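C-alpha cells please, single chain.
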Amino acid sequence: MLRHIDQHGGGVFVYTHHLLREMLALDSQHQFLLLCSKPGLVSRYVDGERVRELVLSAPSALLWDQVAVRLVERREKVDLIFNPKYSLPLTANVRSVFVCHGLDWYVMPRASRWIDRVSHRYLVPRYADKANAIISVSESTRKHVIQYLGVPEERVHTVYHGVDEVFRQSISREDLERARQDHHLPERFFLYCGQIYPPKNFGRLVRAYARVGPERGIHLVVAGEHRWLCDDELALVEQLGISSWVVWAGWIEHQRLPAVYALAKALLMPSLYESCGLPILEAMSSGCPVVTSNRHGTLELSGNAAVLIDPENVDAIAQGMRRVLDDRDQRFQLIEAGRRHAGEFTWRRCAEQTLRVLERAGSVELEPQDGFRRPPPLSFTGHS
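Here you go.
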C-alpha cells in the first residue's frame, strides 16, 4: 500500500523509498504488487517481471484504503497486504502487516488535531487488531504499541531505519560552498531539521537558542516546514528579537542534506517525543554533533554518541548547545562515536529484517475473519 509515497518528503517517505528500493533488490522469489495513486512508481525502483504496479483511484484516503485496496486484494488473490505506514483494509481476507512510525498521538494526545484524534481513537486500534504483525521503528515504539494498543508482544517487531550511503560519503569543499550559497547558509549555525509541530518542542528550542546563539555569533537554520498547532512557537522568533539570527531554509532535498549537516555546528533535536529520529543518524553519519532528548526514541537511537538533555528544561537545552561548542575534546569524541554508531544502521539490513517479518506473518494459517476479529499471533517469539 503506497498511497502516501508522493506526500511530503518527511521521514515516512524517506523510510518507504529506501525500504522499497532495497527490498525489491533482495534475491527472493516473491512477487510484488505496488498499489499507488499515481503512475510511474515501478520505474523508480526496479525493472523486472516479479514487480507490477496498479494505480488506484478513490475520492478519499479512507475509501482508498478500505474499498479500493480491498477490491484489488480479492481480484488479484494476493497473499499478504503490507503498508509501510499505518492503516489496513479492515475487511480484507488475507494476512496483513503495517509499520508503526510512532504513537505521539497517544503519548501526547493534545498535540494532535481533532480530526486526527478521531482517527487515532477509532481506526488505529482496529488496524492494530487486524494486523498479523506490526513493525515498530524502535523499541520505544514497540513498548508503546503494546501499552496503548494492547497488542500481544509477540506480534510487534522492532526493525530500525537505515541511513542512506550519501550521508557517509566525503564532501568536497566545492560542494560545501555550493550548499552554503544555494540555501543561504551563514558561516556558523546550529541546525534544526524536520517538520514543526508540538512534539518537536520547537518553542523551547528557540528560547534556549536565544540564550546562546546570538551572543556566540551563531545562527539557527531551520530546515523544515510548519505543520500544525505551532503558531505560538513560531511567533517566539520575533518576540524574542532574534529574527535576524534565524534562517528559514524550508525543505532541503534529501541529496543536499549531507553538506548542510557537515556545515552545521550541531543538530538540535530536543523533541518531547520521537519514535526514531532519522536526522540523528543522518547527522552522525555526516560528522555533525547532535544535541537531543534523554527520552523515548532519541535516547534509544543516540547510542551514547550525542549530548543528551532534558527537553522540558530550557536551561538544559541551552547548556547542551554550549557543551558542543566549548568542549573541543567532547566534540571530537561525539563526531567519531557518531560515525561508528550510525554505521550500524543500513537500509539493506532494514529490508532483510522487514521481509523476514512479512514471510513469517504470511506463513500463519488464518481462520475466516468476521468484522474486526483479532487475527491469531505469529508462530514465533521475540523481535527482529
